[in-house]
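Dear colleagues,

I hope this message finds you well. In preparation for our joint manuscript, I am sending the Alpha/beta fold hydrolase (Duganella aceris) sequence together with its predicted structure, so that both groups work from identical material. I would be grateful if you could confirm receipt.
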Amino acid sequence: MIKRMIILLLVLQAGAMLALAAGAHVWWHCAWPASLALGFAVVLLVRAGISANNFLMSRRAGSVTPAAHALDPARALGLFLHEFLSSMLTSSWYMLHPIGLRLQPQARGLPVLLIHGYACNSGYWLPMSKSLTRARISHYGIDLEPPGAAIDDFVPQVHAAVERLCAETGSAQVVVVGHSMGGLVARAYLRRHGHDRVARVLTLGTPHYGTALAHFGPGCNAVQMRRGSEWLNLLDASEADLQRTLFISIYSVHDNIVAPQDSSALPGARNLVFGAIGHVALGRHPEIMRAALQEIEAAARR
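The corresponding structure tokens are as follows:
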């Protein structure tokens, strides 16, 4: 469903670009190459404006940035540009290519289940999938459907995926990696099915205690991700200390979707804190992928 929505949005953007180009050609008598360039630039500026607005809203609701992660103008610009590029690649290319099940010949370590976040599909994990493939680690990216369902409604899909991944690889356990809402889905799975099948859970930019920006998202799952939601409070109260020790929460103090950013800090888990990385970029940033791969490989040595 998300892939179809992405295709529709790309068609609409292309239509808007062509309409702007036609208007420039007719009204301003611009040559067609210049008109098309103008239309493309306007669409890019609109997309950049959306990204900039996310940063603005997340800053207003944000937590205090540690001094060690303070940004100078050059790093702030790099943060914005990398997040904008990541958003463009994810929404215009990656999510057109869901990854599904990818078994590796002569696989190493534990298999990995990849759970995407809100309004995404498994194509979000395309860069991570390439990294896991190079490391000869079997993995499975699932597509959570329908997109606006309650988070607990995704648990049967995760359970089926865990069982399939174990059956296909012959492994007794998997490592779960969840981005954003995907980390909450992983926690919901553990609440219902326990941790027998799970060696480690890595969450990337997961709003463990909610995010102010969830107020602007449609769907039952967006409501559940609001700060102080009843669902989040019940999830938090249901977890035993042992379960939290399975978790490694990786997040950025400059996350532009999770605000306050320290909402991703999960008590009882190991929290790995980064700076100058945006929310969407967490799935493709070299530092994050190296850290995640190290933790995935370490889980097999426990």
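For the figure legend, we might mention the following. The first strand starts at residue 100 and ends at 102. Residues 1-60 form one domain.

With kind regards,
E.M.
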